[in-house]
Design brief:
12 helices; 7-stranded antiparallel beta sheet; 25 strands; alpha+beta; 565 residues
Length: 565
């Protein structure tokens, strides 16, 4: 090959290579621009192309149920399940639908329902804006679920669907008996404990002393008690029934020392939980059957168009009125909760105290209710013991006089059961019903309650009995002269924090429903305030004690309801 021919060949090759590069670059540019246009200028086309279901909606309800759901290995598996978009046009304030199809770990279609999911739609802009809303889940009981979202903002949004507890594990939780929670107790001697509840530091000091006395038989006043919740006859000559007078039920069996000489545990003083004696095999077996997690979808995000949205659609709202059951329907816009149907008018600290002027407010329940108590007082510049102080947790937390508003704010714990890491002085234990019975009923009181988190360690019989005790006390309160005018709110429990042990979440959900049914059916004028949607959709850490901005919204809603009574 001559020099001239070789140069000509190289020249042609370079031209063809450059042309190929230009063609490839053009193709990549066209594809990229088309994708961007799909998301920005043509949301309908984008929705049609991405994530749509490949079968009609009516086939959801006609899927046959042919296999039993209780078969081992056939529970819903999160990673094997999937969802897709049914709606072709997604726009503001217009419902759109998602079809969730569940499968087992082998990839086979599930044919029964009953699984517990949460569905949240979240905005993709996270730096200065975080909008989010929960979806309504309809279970067709054949392995398919229809999820409905109503977005209140435009732009890209992420669908987050998570399996918390499968139906089979849920049934195991319902059938689960209480673990053997063993307490080492002192009869007739309080070891210097003169207040009601002490935190873990005191437990760590007192437990070795009680253990030593129990094993060495140095004292005749140390014995073991086991929570039972069954009002049965003592099992031996040295056992007694750990119960309380009137209708405040707390059952247990104590194998006390022979010196007690009673079958009612009257001399029971101090008890410390001994974790080394706990039998929790049933829960661990159920926990091992979990296949929980986020459900993968056919699309990473959806594009919400403005459609026919007009700002005036959400401007005017009537004030929210108290109902037997109130479940705020709305969405988070940054740190602000926006209610769809009505407006909560007590939405500032000044309005809080305007509502509470001359009132006597009782907060009765666990530490999440204590958060509301603390937040209300801090709004007036009154500092109280913070939640982080775990050394000393008195039952009579505080009675605070707010003289600037002629108001009194009180906190009372709901009584047993408590965190098992606490040391309990049984000589001064009381219950929520005792607080209600002790209310003077002058007509200026407000009662706010919550009592679920500490009960998840116990079987439902004990929780239902406690609900009946409280309802009976409320009925007695209503029968008094001014008691019928007292606003009473029962707030449901927060389902967060238990991501490491989802069985607790299922039990909280279940007990929430038991409480809702009990108070609504009692016809005693109790307002049940359900915080599920608000808590499930908020972008906050997985903690029981939510940040102050979320608790402030709850307090505003509660006061808006009671001040309109």
């Amino acid at each position: 090959m001559t020099e001239h021919t070789r140069k000509r060949y190289n020249f042609v090759f370079e031209q063809r290579r450059n042309l190929l590069f230009v063609v490839l670059a053009t193709v990549v540019t066209v594809v990229t621009v088309t994708k961007l246009l799909d998301f920005t200028l043509h949301p309908k086309i984008s929705t049609l192309r991405r994530g749509l279901c490949d079968r009609p909606t009516n086939s959801v309800m006609s899927h046959p149920a042919t296999r039993p759901a209780t078969e081992v290995g056939m529970e819903t598996h999160a990673a094997r399940s999937s969802w897709c978009v049914l709606s072709q046009d997604i726009s503001v304030l217009r419902p759109f639908y998602i079809l969730l199809t569940t499968r087992d770990r082998r990839g086979h279609r599930r044919t029964t329902g009953g699984d517990f999911f949460t569905a949240v739609l979240r905005s993709d802009i996270t730096w200065f804006l975080s909008a989010s809303v929960t979806g309504e889940i309809n279970d067709y009981n054949n392995g398919s679920y229809l999820i409905t979202f109503v977005p209140n903002w435009s732009g890209l949004a992420t669908v987050h669907i998570e399996l918390w507890v499968t139906s089979r594990v849920g049934e195991l939780v319902k059938e689960m008996t209480a673990p053997n929670y063993i307490f080492i107790c002192a009869f007739g001697h309080n070891y210097g404990i003169h207040v009601d509840y002490f935190g873990p530091p005191v437990r760590e000091e007192l437990l070795p002393v009680l253990n030593s006395d129990l094993k060495a038989n140095k004292r005749s006043n140390v014995g073991l008690c086991r929570m039972d919740w069954q009002p049965e006859v003592p099992r031996s000559n040295t056992s007694c029934s750990m119960s309380f007078p009137r209708n405040h039920h707390w059952y247990g069996i104590c194998e006390g020392p022979r010196a007690i000489g009673s079958t009612t545990c009257d001399s029971l003083q101090v008890c410390v939980y001994d974790e080394s004696m706990k039998d929790n095999n049933t829960r661990e077996r159920a926990r091992g059957r979990q296949n929980i997690g986020v459900i993968p979808g056919a699309v990473k995000s959806v594009n919400i168009s403005k459609g026919n949205y007009n700002c005036e659609m959400t401007m005017s709202k009537e004030p929210c009125q108290p109902q037997p059951y109130v479940r705020p329907s709305g969405y988070w816009w940054g740190k602000e909760w926006v209610n769809r149907d009505c407006s909560f008018h007590c939405n500032s600290k000044d309005k809080w105290w305007k509502c509470l002027t001359g009132r006597d407010v009782y907060f009765v329940g666990d530490s999440t209710i204590r958060q509301l108590f603390v937040l209300l007082l801090l709004s007036e510049g009154i500092k109280v013991l913070p939640l982080s102080n775990s050394k000393f947790i008195p039952s009579k937390f505080a009675d605070i006089d707010v003289k600037t508003h002629n108001a009194k704010v009180r906190y009372r714990h709901h009584g047993l059961p408590l965190m098992l890491s606490l040391t309990i002085n049984f000589s001064s234990v009381y219950f929520s019903a005792d607080v209600i019975d002790a209310m003077p009923a002058n007509g200026n009181e407000i009662l706010v309650m919550s009592m679920i988190h500490h009960f998840i360690q116990l079987p439902p019989k004990g929780f239902q009995q406690r609900l009946q005790d409280i309802i009976a006390a409320i009925r007695r309160l209503r029968q008094r002269k001014m008691g019928k005018n007292i606003p009473i709110v029962f707030r449901t429990a927060n389902l967060r924090e238990f991501h490491s042990f989802r069985l607790n979440v299922y039990r909280i959900k279940w007990y929430n429903q038991l409480a809702v049914d009990a108070f609504v059916s009692s016809n005693l004028g109790v307002i049940v305030y359900d915080i599920f949607d608000m808590v499930a959709s908020c972008r906050r850490p997985e903690v029981v004690h939510l940040p102050d901005d979320v608790m402030s919204v709850q307090l505003s809603h509660i006061l808006s309801l009671v001040c309109s009574v």
